[in-house]
Protein backbone atom coordinates (compact mmCIF):
# COMPACT_ATOMS: atom_id res chain seq x y z
CA UNK A 1 0.00 0.00 0.00
CA UNK A 2 2.98 2.34 0.08
CA UNK A 3 4.00 4.41 -2.92
CA UNK A 4 6.68 1.80 -3.58
CA UNK A 5 4.05 -0.90 -4.18
CA UNK A 6 2.39 1.13 -6.95
CA UNK A 7 3.17 0.78 -10.65
CA UNK A 8 4.71 3.55 -12.74
CA UNK A 9 2.60 4.98 -15.55
CA UNK A 10 3.58 3.30 -18.80
CA UNK A 11 3.23 4.34 -22.44
CA UNK A 12 0.46 1.74 -22.74
CA UNK A 13 -1.44 3.40 -19.88
CA UNK A 14 -1.23 6.79 -21.58
CA UNK A 15 -2.44 5.23 -24.80
CA UNK A 16 -5.35 3.69 -22.90
CA UNK A 17 -6.44 7.05 -21.46
CA UNK A 18 -6.17 8.81 -24.82
CA UNK A 19 -8.01 5.90 -26.45
CA UNK A 20 -11.08 6.35 -24.22
CA UNK A 21 -11.19 10.07 -25.05
CA UNK A 22 -9.51 11.58 -21.99
CA UNK A 23 -7.37 14.67 -22.66
CA UNK A 24 -3.75 13.99 -21.71
CA UNK A 25 -0.85 16.43 -21.29
CA UNK A 26 2.74 15.21 -21.07
CA UNK A 27 5.27 17.11 -18.97
CA UNK A 28 8.20 14.73 -18.99
CA UNK A 29 8.71 15.74 -15.34
CA UNK A 30 9.22 19.43 -16.26
CA UNK A 31 8.69 21.93 -13.43
CA UNK A 32 5.78 23.43 -15.26
CA UNK A 33 3.17 25.66 -13.61
CA UNK A 34 0.64 24.92 -12.39
CA UNK A 35 1.00 21.16 -12.50
CA UNK A 36 4.47 20.61 -11.01
CA UNK A 37 5.01 23.82 -8.99
CA UNK A 38 2.93 24.97 -6.05
CA UNK A 39 1.70 28.50 -5.30
CA UNK A 40 4.45 29.13 -2.74
CA UNK A 41 7.13 27.61 -4.98
CA UNK A 42 8.09 25.50 -1.97
CA UNK A 43 7.08 22.10 -3.29
CA UNK A 44 8.01 20.74 -6.68
CA UNK A 45 6.14 17.93 -8.36
CA UNK A 46 7.65 15.42 -10.73
CA UNK A 47 4.71 13.98 -12.66
CA UNK A 48 4.84 13.31 -16.34
CA UNK A 49 1.20 12.54 -17.15
CA UNK A 50 -1.65 15.00 -16.55
CA UNK A 51 -5.21 13.81 -17.16
CA UNK A 52 -7.93 16.38 -17.77
CA UNK A 53 -11.34 14.66 -17.49
CA UNK A 54 -14.48 16.50 -18.60
CA UNK A 55 -17.10 14.52 -16.72
CA UNK A 56 -17.72 12.42 -13.63
CA UNK A 57 -17.89 9.40 -15.92
CA UNK A 58 -14.38 10.08 -17.21
CA UNK A 59 -13.09 10.47 -13.63
CA UNK A 60 -14.70 7.13 -12.85
CA UNK A 61 -13.01 5.50 -15.87
CA UNK A 62 -9.63 6.90 -14.79
CA UNK A 63 -9.90 5.71 -11.19
CA UNK A 64 -11.25 2.29 -12.03
CA UNK A 65 -8.31 1.76 -14.43
CA UNK A 66 -5.73 3.11 -11.96
CA UNK A 67 -7.18 0.95 -9.19
CA UNK A 68 -6.97 -2.12 -11.39
CA UNK A 69 -3.42 -1.30 -12.53
CA UNK A 70 -2.30 0.02 -9.10
CA UNK A 71 -1.28 3.42 -10.43
CA UNK A 72 -1.04 6.36 -7.99
CA UNK A 73 -3.36 9.35 -8.52
CA UNK A 74 -2.89 12.91 -7.29
CA UNK A 75 -5.86 15.25 -7.59
CA UNK A 76 -5.31 18.91 -8.43
CA UNK A 77 -7.78 21.79 -8.30
CA UNK A 78 -6.43 25.34 -8.48
CA UNK A 79 -3.10 24.26 -6.90
CA UNK A 80 -3.21 27.10 -4.36
CA UNK A 81 -2.89 24.74 -1.39
CA UNK A 82 0.06 25.55 0.84
CA UNK A 83 0.73 22.00 2.04
CA UNK A 84 1.96 20.44 -1.21
CA UNK A 85 -0.98 18.02 -1.40
CA UNK A 86 -1.79 18.74 -5.05
CA UNK A 87 1.62 17.81 -6.43
CA UNK A 88 2.77 14.36 -7.47
CA UNK A 89 6.03 13.24 -5.94
CA UNK A 90 6.19 9.72 -7.27
CA UNK A 91 5.19 8.28 -10.58
CA UNK A 92 1.49 9.13 -10.22
CA UNK A 93 -0.93 10.50 -12.78
CA UNK A 94 -2.05 14.01 -12.00
CA UNK A 95 -5.81 14.36 -12.33
CA UNK A 96 -6.70 18.00 -12.92
CA UNK A 97 -10.28 19.18 -12.43
CA UNK A 98 -9.88 22.35 -14.51
CA UNK A 99 -12.13 21.16 -17.35
CA UNK A 100 -15.00 20.27 -15.03
CA UNK A 101 -16.25 23.79 -14.42
CA UNK A 102 -20.00 23.99 -15.05
CA UNK A 103 -22.59 25.39 -12.68
CA UNK A 104 -25.18 22.62 -12.50
CA UNK A 105 -27.99 24.43 -10.69
CA UNK A 106 -28.89 27.34 -8.43
CA UNK A 107 -32.10 27.10 -6.41
CA UNK A 108 -32.93 30.73 -5.66
CA UNK A 109 -35.64 29.84 -3.14
CA UNK A 110 -33.59 27.40 -1.10
CA UNK A 111 -30.37 29.36 -1.72
CA UNK A 112 -28.42 26.29 -2.84
CA UNK A 113 -25.72 26.06 -5.50
CA UNK A 114 -24.71 22.82 -7.21
CA UNK A 115 -21.46 23.06 -9.17
CA UNK A 116 -18.72 20.95 -10.70
CA UNK A 117 -15.64 20.65 -8.50
CA UNK A 118 -13.44 22.53 -11.01
CA UNK A 119 -15.37 25.82 -10.77
CA UNK A 120 -13.14 28.68 -9.61
CA UNK A 121 -14.37 30.21 -6.36
CA UNK A 122 -14.45 33.79 -7.67
CA UNK A 123 -16.45 32.74 -10.76
CA UNK A 124 -19.02 30.97 -8.60
CA UNK A 125 -19.37 34.00 -6.38
CA UNK A 126 -19.89 36.25 -9.43
CA UNK A 127 -22.49 33.81 -10.76
CA UNK A 128 -24.63 33.75 -7.61
CA UNK A 129 -24.27 37.47 -6.86
CA UNK A 130 -26.60 38.29 -9.75
CA UNK A 131 -29.22 36.21 -7.95
CA UNK A 132 -28.79 37.99 -4.61
CA UNK A 133 -26.43 35.51 -2.94
CA UNK A 134 -22.79 35.07 -2.05
CA UNK A 135 -20.75 31.89 -1.67
CA UNK A 136 -20.18 31.71 2.12
CA UNK A 137 -16.42 31.35 1.71
CA UNK A 138 -13.79 33.85 0.64
CA UNK A 139 -10.02 33.34 0.39
CA UNK A 140 -7.11 35.44 -0.83
CA UNK A 141 -6.64 32.76 -3.51
CA UNK A 142 -10.22 33.15 -4.81
CA UNK A 143 -9.12 33.78 -8.42
CA UNK A 144 -7.44 30.37 -8.74
CA UNK A 145 -8.75 28.00 -6.09
CA UNK A 146 -11.62 25.69 -7.01
CA UNK A 147 -14.65 24.68 -5.02
CA UNK A 148 -13.60 21.01 -5.04
CA UNK A 149 -10.22 22.05 -3.61
CA UNK A 150 -11.96 24.22 -1.01
CA UNK A 151 -14.07 21.27 0.11
CA UNK A 152 -11.12 18.89 0.03
CA UNK A 153 -8.99 21.18 2.24
CA UNK A 154 -11.92 22.21 4.46
CA UNK A 155 -10.93 25.80 3.66
CA UNK A 156 -11.68 28.47 6.26
CA UNK A 157 -10.95 31.94 4.98
CA UNK A 158 -11.83 35.50 5.73
CA UNK A 159 -15.47 35.25 6.88
CA UNK A 160 -15.53 31.94 8.72
CA UNK A 161 -16.49 33.89 11.84
CA UNK A 162 -19.81 34.82 10.24
CA UNK A 163 -20.64 32.01 7.82
CA UNK A 164 -19.01 29.02 9.49
CA UNK A 165 -17.15 26.01 8.15
CA UNK A 166 -17.36 23.87 5.03
CA UNK A 167 -18.60 21.12 7.34
CA UNK A 168 -21.68 23.28 7.96
CA UNK A 169 -22.17 24.86 4.53
CA UNK A 170 -21.59 21.92 2.21
CA UNK A 171 -24.87 20.07 1.79
CA UNK A 172 -23.65 17.31 -0.48
CA UNK A 173 -20.83 15.96 -2.58
CA UNK A 174 -20.57 13.73 -5.59
CA UNK A 175 -17.32 11.80 -5.37
CA UNK A 176 -15.62 9.05 -7.30
CA UNK A 177 -14.22 6.39 -4.99
CA UNK A 178 -10.72 5.00 -5.57
CA UNK A 179 -12.11 1.91 -7.34
CA UNK A 180 -14.13 4.04 -9.77
CA UNK A 181 -17.57 3.77 -8.14
CA UNK A 182 -19.53 7.02 -8.20
CA UNK A 183 -20.76 7.97 -4.74
CA UNK A 184 -23.80 10.16 -5.19
CA UNK A 185 -24.18 12.07 -1.93
CA UNK A 186 -25.07 15.29 -3.75
CA UNK A 187 -27.98 16.18 -1.49
CA UNK A 188 -29.38 19.70 -1.56
CA UNK A 189 -31.20 19.24 1.75
CA UNK A 190 -30.31 21.34 4.76
CA UNK A 191 -31.54 18.77 7.25
CA UNK A 192 -30.87 15.08 7.06
CA UNK A 193 -30.47 12.82 10.07
CA UNK A 194 -30.82 9.54 8.20
CA UNK A 195 -27.61 7.71 9.01
CA UNK A 196 -23.90 8.53 8.79
CA UNK A 197 -23.14 11.83 7.10
CA UNK A 198 -20.85 10.40 4.41
CA UNK A 199 -20.11 13.71 2.66
CA UNK A 200 -18.23 14.88 5.77
CA UNK A 201 -15.51 12.31 5.06
CA UNK A 202 -14.57 14.17 1.89
CA UNK A 203 -14.39 17.58 3.59
CA UNK A 204 -10.70 17.83 4.45
CA UNK A 205 -9.74 14.47 2.88
CA UNK A 206 -7.31 16.26 0.49
CA UNK A 207 -7.80 13.82 -2.35
CA UNK A 208 -6.92 10.73 -0.30
CA UNK A 209 -10.34 9.06 -0.28
CA UNK A 210 -11.45 9.76 -3.85
CA UNK A 211 -12.14 12.63 -6.23
CA UNK A 212 -14.83 15.18 -5.41
CA UNK A 213 -16.53 15.85 -8.74
CA UNK A 214 -19.41 18.10 -7.65
CA UNK A 215 -20.52 20.01 -4.60
CA UNK A 216 -23.79 21.44 -3.33
CA UNK A 217 -23.44 24.35 -0.99
CA UNK A 218 -25.82 26.54 1.03
CA UNK A 219 -25.47 30.15 -0.10
CA UNK A 220 -25.72 33.24 2.10
CA UNK A 221 -27.82 36.28 1.18
CA UNK A 222 -25.85 39.11 -0.37
CA UNK A 223 -25.56 41.75 2.38
CA UNK A 224 -27.40 45.04 1.80
CA UNK A 225 -25.01 46.99 3.96
CA UNK A 226 -21.36 46.56 4.73
CA UNK A 227 -18.78 48.54 6.74
CA UNK A 228 -15.15 48.14 7.64
CA UNK A 229 -13.12 49.60 10.51
CA UNK A 230 -9.33 49.45 10.61
CA UNK A 231 -7.83 49.83 14.05
CA UNK A 232 -4.30 50.48 15.29
CA UNK A 233 -3.47 48.94 18.70
CA UNK A 234 -0.50 48.99 21.02
CA UNK A 235 -0.36 45.39 22.25
CA UNK A 236 -1.66 41.93 21.46
CA UNK A 237 -3.83 41.60 24.55
CA UNK A 238 -5.87 44.58 23.35
CA UNK A 239 -6.85 42.60 20.22
CA UNK A 240 -8.63 40.02 22.35
CA UNK A 241 -10.32 42.68 24.45
CA UNK A 242 -11.45 44.47 21.28
CA UNK A 243 -12.85 41.17 19.98
CA UNK A 244 -14.96 40.72 23.10
CA UNK A 245 -16.34 44.25 22.63
CA UNK A 246 -17.02 43.56 18.94
CA UNK A 247 -19.18 40.59 19.89
CA UNK A 248 -21.07 42.68 22.45
CA UNK A 249 -21.64 45.75 20.26
CA UNK A 250 -21.85 44.32 16.76
CA UNK A 251 -23.49 41.01 17.62
CA UNK A 252 -24.87 39.16 14.62
CA UNK A 253 -23.56 41.63 12.02
CA UNK A 254 -19.84 41.14 12.67
CA UNK A 255 -18.56 39.20 9.66
CA UNK A 256 -14.76 39.31 9.99
CA UNK A 257 -12.23 40.14 12.66
CA UNK A 258 -8.73 39.94 11.20
CA UNK A 259 -5.44 40.97 12.75
CA UNK A 260 -1.85 41.47 11.72
CA UNK A 261 1.29 42.88 13.25
CA UNK A 262 3.51 45.74 12.19
CA UNK A 263 5.98 43.71 10.12
CA UNK A 264 3.12 42.19 8.07
CA UNK A 265 1.92 45.72 7.39
CA UNK A 266 5.37 46.83 6.28
CA UNK A 267 5.83 43.84 3.95
CA UNK A 268 2.42 44.41 2.33
CA UNK A 269 3.24 48.05 1.66
CA UNK A 270 6.72 47.19 0.39
CA UNK A 271 6.03 44.14 -1.78
CA UNK A 272 2.49 44.75 -3.01
CA UNK A 273 2.71 48.54 -3.26
CA UNK A 274 -0.53 49.13 -1.33
CA UNK A 275 -0.85 52.40 0.57
CA UNK A 276 -0.98 52.11 4.35
CA UNK A 277 -4.51 51.88 5.72
CA UNK A 278 -3.77 54.06 8.75
CA UNK A 279 -1.88 57.34 9.09
CA UNK A 280 0.63 56.12 11.71
CA UNK A 281 2.47 52.83 12.28
CA UNK A 282 1.14 50.59 15.06
CA UNK A 283 2.34 47.44 16.80
CA UNK A 284 -0.90 45.63 15.78
CA UNK A 285 -3.75 46.16 13.37
CA UNK A 286 -7.30 44.85 13.36
CA UNK A 287 -9.79 44.91 10.54
CA UNK A 288 -13.43 44.48 11.55
CA UNK A 289 -16.16 44.05 8.99
CA UNK A 290 -19.92 44.16 9.47
CA UNK A 291 -22.52 42.86 7.06
CA UNK A 292 -26.13 43.66 7.76
CA UNK A 293 -29.39 44.66 6.17
CA UNK A 294 -30.05 48.24 7.38
CA UNK A 295 -27.16 50.65 6.77
CA UNK A 296 -28.27 53.19 9.41
CA UNK A 297 -28.49 50.57 12.17
CA UNK A 298 -25.16 49.05 11.18
CA UNK A 299 -23.48 52.49 11.21
CA UNK A 300 -24.87 53.18 14.70
CA UNK A 301 -23.56 49.85 15.96
CA UNK A 302 -20.11 50.44 14.52
CA UNK A 303 -19.97 53.92 16.06
CA UNK A 304 -20.94 52.51 19.47
CA UNK A 305 -18.24 49.84 19.11
CA UNK A 306 -15.51 52.35 18.25
CA UNK A 307 -16.64 54.59 21.15
CA UNK A 308 -16.44 51.60 23.52
CA UNK A 309 -12.91 50.83 22.27
CA UNK A 310 -11.87 54.40 22.97
CA UNK A 311 -13.50 54.44 26.42
CA UNK A 312 -11.55 51.28 27.28
CA UNK A 313 -8.35 52.82 25.88
CA UNK A 314 -7.88 49.94 23.44
CA UNK A 315 -7.16 51.77 20.17
CA UNK A 316 -4.67 54.44 19.21
CA UNK A 317 -6.11 55.13 15.76
CA UNK A 318 -9.23 54.06 13.90
CA UNK A 319 -10.60 54.54 10.43
CA UNK A 320 -14.12 53.67 9.32
CA UNK A 321 -14.91 52.83 5.72
CA UNK A 322 -18.28 52.39 4.10
CA UNK A 323 -17.60 53.32 0.46
CA UNK A 324 -17.12 50.27 -1.79
CA UNK A 325 -13.73 51.42 -3.16
CA UNK A 326 -12.32 52.08 0.31
CA UNK A 327 -13.55 48.74 1.63
CA UNK A 328 -12.21 46.91 -1.42
CA UNK A 329 -8.81 48.56 -0.91
CA UNK A 330 -8.78 47.50 2.75
CA UNK A 331 -9.65 43.91 1.85
CA UNK A 332 -7.09 43.85 -0.93
CA UNK A 333 -4.48 44.94 1.59
CA UNK A 334 -5.46 42.14 3.95
CA UNK A 335 -5.84 39.49 1.21
CA UNK A 336 -2.46 40.34 -0.30
CA UNK A 337 -0.61 39.85 2.99
CA UNK A 338 0.20 36.20 2.21
CA UNK A 339 1.40 37.20 -1.28
CA UNK A 340 3.61 39.93 0.17
CA UNK A 341 5.28 37.37 2.42
CA UNK A 342 5.74 35.02 -0.54
CA UNK A 343 7.43 37.79 -2.52
CA UNK A 344 9.70 38.77 0.37
CA UNK A 345 11.58 35.44 0.57
CA UNK A 346 11.18 31.70 1.03
CA UNK A 347 8.05 31.40 3.14
CA UNK A 348 7.33 28.65 5.62
CA UNK A 349 3.70 29.20 6.50
CA UNK A 350 2.26 27.54 9.60
CA UNK A 351 -1.45 27.44 10.02
CA UNK A 352 -2.47 26.77 13.60
CA UNK A 353 -5.52 26.94 15.81
CA UNK A 354 -4.55 27.96 19.32
CA UNK A 355 -6.45 28.99 22.44
CA UNK A 356 -6.27 32.81 22.77
CA UNK A 357 -3.92 32.77 25.78
CA UNK A 358 -1.17 30.99 23.79
CA UNK A 359 -1.43 32.83 20.49
CA UNK A 360 1.18 35.52 20.95
CA UNK A 361 3.48 33.24 22.95
CA UNK A 362 3.94 31.19 19.78
CA UNK A 363 5.57 34.14 18.01
CA UNK A 364 7.84 34.87 20.96
CA UNK A 365 8.80 31.22 21.37
CA UNK A 366 9.65 30.87 17.67
CA UNK A 367 11.75 34.03 17.58
CA UNK A 368 13.56 33.06 20.79
CA UNK A 369 14.36 29.62 19.48
CA UNK A 370 15.75 30.95 16.19
CA UNK A 371 17.73 33.67 17.98
CA UNK A 372 19.21 31.13 20.39
CA UNK A 373 20.37 29.13 17.38
CA UNK A 374 21.91 32.26 15.79
CA UNK A 375 19.50 32.08 12.87
CA UNK A 376 17.45 35.23 13.38
CA UNK A 377 18.02 38.78 14.52
CA UNK A 378 21.23 39.65 12.66
CA UNK A 379 21.33 41.31 9.20
CA UNK A 380 22.66 38.22 7.38
CA UNK A 381 20.97 35.51 9.43
CA UNK A 382 19.22 32.77 7.43
CA UNK A 383 15.79 33.85 8.73
CA UNK A 384 14.73 37.30 7.56
CA UNK A 385 11.39 37.61 9.34
CA UNK A 386 9.04 35.82 11.72
CA UNK A 387 5.49 37.22 11.64
CA UNK A 388 1.91 36.45 12.61
CA UNK A 389 -1.42 37.45 11.18
CA UNK A 390 -4.72 35.71 10.88
CA UNK A 391 -8.34 35.23 11.68
CA UNK A 392 -8.47 36.10 15.36
CA UNK A 393 -12.21 35.50 15.56
CA UNK A 394 -11.58 31.84 14.67
CA UNK A 395 -8.47 31.42 16.90
CA UNK A 396 -6.57 30.77 13.67
CA UNK A 397 -3.03 32.13 13.62
CA UNK A 398 -0.80 32.06 10.53
CA UNK A 399 2.85 32.14 11.51
CA UNK A 400 5.38 32.85 8.78
CA UNK A 401 9.08 32.13 8.91
CA UNK A 402 10.71 33.89 5.97
CA UNK A 403 14.02 32.29 5.13
CA UNK A 404 16.65 33.19 2.57
CA UNK A 405 16.35 29.69 1.13
CA UNK A 406 14.19 26.61 1.58
CA UNK A 407 15.38 23.52 3.40
CA UNK A 408 18.57 23.06 5.40
CA UNK A 409 19.10 24.27 8.96
CA UNK A 410 16.10 26.64 9.10
CA UNK A 411 13.59 23.90 8.38
CA UNK A 412 15.35 21.58 10.83
CA UNK A 413 15.29 24.28 13.53
CA UNK A 414 11.58 24.94 13.17
CA UNK A 415 10.19 21.46 12.47
CA UNK A 416 9.09 19.34 14.22
CA UNK A 417 9.69 21.66 17.21
CA UNK A 418 6.86 24.02 16.22
CA UNK A 419 4.32 21.18 15.95
CA UNK A 420 5.27 19.85 19.37
CA UNK A 421 4.90 23.37 20.81
CA UNK A 422 1.44 23.79 19.27
CA UNK A 423 0.30 20.30 20.33
CA UNK A 424 1.46 20.84 23.90
CA UNK A 425 -0.45 24.15 24.06
CA UNK A 426 -3.76 22.62 23.01
CA UNK A 427 -3.63 23.64 19.34
CA UNK A 428 -4.29 22.08 15.94
CA UNK A 429 -1.34 21.64 13.56
CA UNK A 430 -3.51 22.55 10.56
CA UNK A 431 -6.41 24.93 11.15
CA UNK A 432 -7.40 25.39 7.49
CA UNK A 433 -4.58 24.47 5.10
CA UNK A 434 -4.66 20.71 5.60
CA UNK A 435 -1.94 18.11 6.15
CA UNK A 436 -0.74 17.72 2.57
CA UNK A 437 2.63 16.28 1.74
CA UNK A 438 4.44 16.50 5.04
CA UNK A 439 2.24 17.39 8.02
CA UNK A 440 0.82 13.87 8.47
CA UNK A 441 3.66 12.69 10.75
CA UNK A 442 3.12 15.74 12.99
CA UNK A 443 -0.53 14.93 13.62
CA UNK A 444 0.51 12.78 16.58
CA UNK A 445 1.46 15.90 18.53
CA UNK A 446 -2.12 17.15 18.50
CA UNK A 447 -4.45 14.15 18.02
CA UNK A 448 -4.85 11.02 20.09
CA UNK A 449 -3.59 7.64 18.78
CA UNK A 450 -7.20 6.42 18.64
CA UNK A 451 -8.22 9.31 16.36
CA UNK A 452 -5.25 8.75 14.03
CA UNK A 453 -5.88 5.01 13.89
CA UNK A 454 -9.56 5.62 13.04
CA UNK A 455 -8.48 7.93 10.20
CA UNK A 456 -6.14 5.23 8.89
CA UNK A 457 -8.91 2.61 9.11
CA UNK A 458 -11.16 4.80 6.97
CA UNK A 459 -8.36 5.22 4.43
CA UNK A 460 -7.79 1.45 4.31
CA UNK A 461 -11.52 0.84 3.89
CA UNK A 462 -12.05 3.24 1.00
CA UNK A 463 -8.65 3.01 -0.67
CA UNK A 464 -7.28 -0.46 0.13
CA UNK A 465 -4.65 -0.22 -2.61
CA UNK A 466 -3.45 3.20 -1.45
CA UNK A 467 -3.60 4.76 -4.92
CA UNK A 468 -4.98 8.17 -3.86
CA UNK A 469 -2.39 10.78 -2.83
CA UNK A 470 0.26 8.18 -2.01
CA UNK A 471 2.43 9.06 0.98
CA UNK A 472 0.32 12.09 1.93
CA UNK A 473 -2.05 13.05 4.77
CA UNK A 474 -2.40 10.17 7.28
CA UNK A 475 -0.50 7.91 4.94
CA UNK A 476 -0.89 4.19 5.54
CA UNK A 477 2.43 2.40 5.40
C1 LIG B 1 -2.62 33.82 -1.44
C2 LIG B 1 -3.29 32.65 -0.76
C3 LIG B 1 -4.24 32.89 0.23
C4 LIG B 1 -4.87 31.81 0.87
N1 LIG B 1 -5.80 32.08 1.83
C5 LIG B 1 -6.42 31.05 2.45
C6 LIG B 1 -7.39 31.30 3.49
O1 LIG B 1 -7.65 32.43 3.89
N2 LIG B 1 -8.00 30.23 4.03
C7 LIG B 1 -7.74 28.93 3.64
O2 LIG B 1 -8.35 28.00 4.15
N3 LIG B 1 -6.82 28.68 2.67
C8 LIG B 1 -6.16 29.70 2.08
N4 LIG B 1 -5.22 29.44 1.11
C9 LIG B 1 -4.91 28.03 0.76
C10 LIG B 1 -5.69 27.48 -0.46
O3 LIG B 1 -6.12 28.51 -1.31
C11 LIG B 1 -6.87 26.62 0.00
O4 LIG B 1 -6.38 25.48 0.69
C12 LIG B 1 -7.80 26.16 -1.14
O5 LIG B 1 -8.98 25.61 -0.57
C13 LIG B 1 -7.16 25.13 -2.07
O6 LIG B 1 -8.00 24.98 -3.23
P1 LIG B 1 -7.36 24.51 -4.62
O7 LIG B 1 -8.46 24.33 -5.60
O8 LIG B 1 -6.27 25.41 -5.01
O9 LIG B 1 -6.80 23.08 -4.20
P2 LIG B 1 -5.40 22.41 -4.60
O10 LIG B 1 -4.28 23.23 -4.07
O11 LIG B 1 -5.37 22.08 -6.02
O12 LIG B 1 -5.49 21.05 -3.74
C14 LIG B 1 -5.45 21.06 -2.35
C15 LIG B 1 -5.66 19.63 -1.84
O13 LIG B 1 -6.98 19.18 -2.15
C16 LIG B 1 -6.94 18.06 -3.05
N5 LIG B 1 -8.01 18.30 -4.05
C17 LIG B 1 -8.16 19.38 -4.85
N6 LIG B 1 -9.29 19.26 -5.57
C18 LIG B 1 -9.84 18.07 -5.23
C19 LIG B 1 -11.01 17.37 -5.64
N7 LIG B 1 -11.84 17.87 -6.55
N8 LIG B 1 -11.26 16.15 -5.10
C20 LIG B 1 -10.42 15.62 -4.17
N9 LIG B 1 -9.31 16.24 -3.75
C21 LIG B 1 -9.02 17.45 -4.27
C22 LIG B 1 -5.54 18.03 -3.62
O14 LIG B 1 -5.15 16.71 -3.94
C23 LIG B 1 -4.72 18.61 -2.48
O15 LIG B 1 -4.43 17.62 -1.53
C24 LIG B 1 -4.55 30.48 0.49
C25 LIG B 1 -3.60 30.25 -0.50
C26 LIG B 1 -2.94 31.32 -1.12
C27 LIG B 1 -1.93 31.02 -2.18
From TrEMBL:
It catalyses: (R)-lactate + 2 Fe(III)-[cytochrome c] = 2 Fe(II)-[cytochrome c] + pyruvate + 2 H(+). Keywords: FAD, Flavoprotein, Oxidoreductase. It is an enzyme of class 1 (oxidoreductase). InterPro entries: FAD-bd_oxidored_4_C (IPR004113), FAD-bd_PCMH (IPR016166), FAD-bd_PCMH-like_sf (IPR036318), FAD-bd_PCMH_sub2 (IPR016169), FAD-linked_Oxase-like_C (IPR016164), FAD-oxidored/transferase_4 (IPR051264), Oxid_FAD_bind_N (IPR006094), Vanillyl_alc_oxidase_C-sub2 (IPR016171). Residues 43-222 form the FAD-binding PCMH-type domain. Pfam families: FAD-oxidase_C, FAD_binding_4. GO terms for cellular component: mitochondrion. Its cofactor is FAD. Its EC number is 1.1.99.40. One of its GO terms (molecular function) is FAD binding. Belongs to the FAD-binding oxidoreductase/transferase type 4 family. PANTHER family: D-2-HYDROXYGLUTARATE DEHYDROGENASE, MITOCHONDRIAL. This is D-lactate ferricytochrome c oxidoreductase. The lineage of its organism: Eukaryota, Fungi, Fungi incertae sedis, Zoopagomycota, Kickxellomycotina.
